[in-house]
Amino acid sequence: MITFNDFYHDKPVEVDPHSGEPLEEGGRVYTIQDRIKLGRRMKKLKNRIQKAKARKMKRKASQAVLGKRAQKSARNVFKKRFGQGKAYKDLSAGQKQIVDKKVNVKKPAIGRLKKRLVKVKRKLDIGRKR
């Protein structure tokens, strides 16, 4: 069973179920079946994840955690851009696959945006602690 720490920090290397190759961070393009399976799993774990996230947000974030938060924000910027301005969650599963493929092509740009967003995330983290 996946725990919040696995989900948020040191999750094991994911393997593509079709090719068996290891996947890079954020490099997964989910099929419709994968999305349904992941949705069921997360529905069961949502309360546990929320509580763990609330506990983690009370602590000062490390540089690695800030980097992950910044990378997630950078990916979301590109998802919104490639989703024609619509919210990613409102897109159909097929549209999400297309958007994810386009986002994966932009990994270098995501890395550059991540470096700029780390400072923003650090300020937000410090502001939350006050």
Oligomer: single chain
Radius of gyration: 16 Å
User: What percent of the residues sit in helical stretches (DSSP H or I)?
Assistant: 55-70%
Q: Give the number of DSSP strands.
A: 0
Number of helices: 5
Strand content: under 5%
Q: Please describe the biggest sheet, giving its number of strands, its sense, and whether it closes into a barrel.
A: none
C-alpha termini separation: 35 Å
Structural class: mainly alpha
User: What's the overall average pLDDT, rounded?
Assistant: 85
Count of separate structural domains: 1
Molecular shape? globular
Order of helices and strands: HHHHH
Low-confidence stretches: none
Structural topology:
Layout (H helix, E strand, L loop, with lengths): L3 H5 L23 H27 L4 H20 L10 H13 L1 H23 L1
Notes on the structure:
The chain is mostly helical and 130 residues long. The protein has one domain. Helix content is 68%, strand content 0%.
